[in-house]
Amino acid sequence: MDLQGRxxxxxDRLRVLLMLFHTMAQIMAEQEVENLSGLSxxxxxxxxxxxxxxxxxxxxxxxxxxxxxxxxWASNYVDLITEQADIALTRGAEVKGRCGHSESELQVFWxxxxxxxKMLFVKESHNMSKGPEETWxxxxxxxxxxxxxxxxxxxxxxxxxxxANSHHLSALVTPAGKSYxxxxxxxxxxxxxxxxxxxxxxxSAVHIQPFDIISDFVFSEGN
Length: 223
Description:
It is a single-pass type I membrane protein. This protein has 223 residues and is mainly beta.
């Protein structure tokens, strides 16, 4: 009897079962997102919630505006002059998100997806003199905008989709288990794919917690 030959199919079946189990586990860990901006008394502030298996895993409240420089032709149609578009994150935006043990992400789309904001959060452990200490921070911001969108842009020369990214970002640094809260304006510079253009993101009325939320729809103690 060829026991070795019989063992191979068994190993293959086990591998298939493990793959099916892994897929089912991913499906069971369902994530849903909610835009609760209508609950805010501040018309400029948005409220986003990401939930996994019916439990809140990321909450974000903030107002955001983007200052976007773009080129237009001067009246002589020879020279270029730089104009500025002020783009605010509006209510009713579409939202997506995901939660992880050490990495979470929030994505927001508005004006028929002409604009998209992605915010990436990471949780890290640091060796301090008093022992290991965990913190979380905003590690990346990406803003995609379409300068052919007529509401905010007027006759842009290089009209079309552009992507603006942060560079070596470390913002909103907060001890693990706590939320970040700050009412003051904060600015983040984003390098655009539109040559020699820098987009400015202005955040205000911020209250964010991307990890370790204990109570559903409730922020932990603010930092």
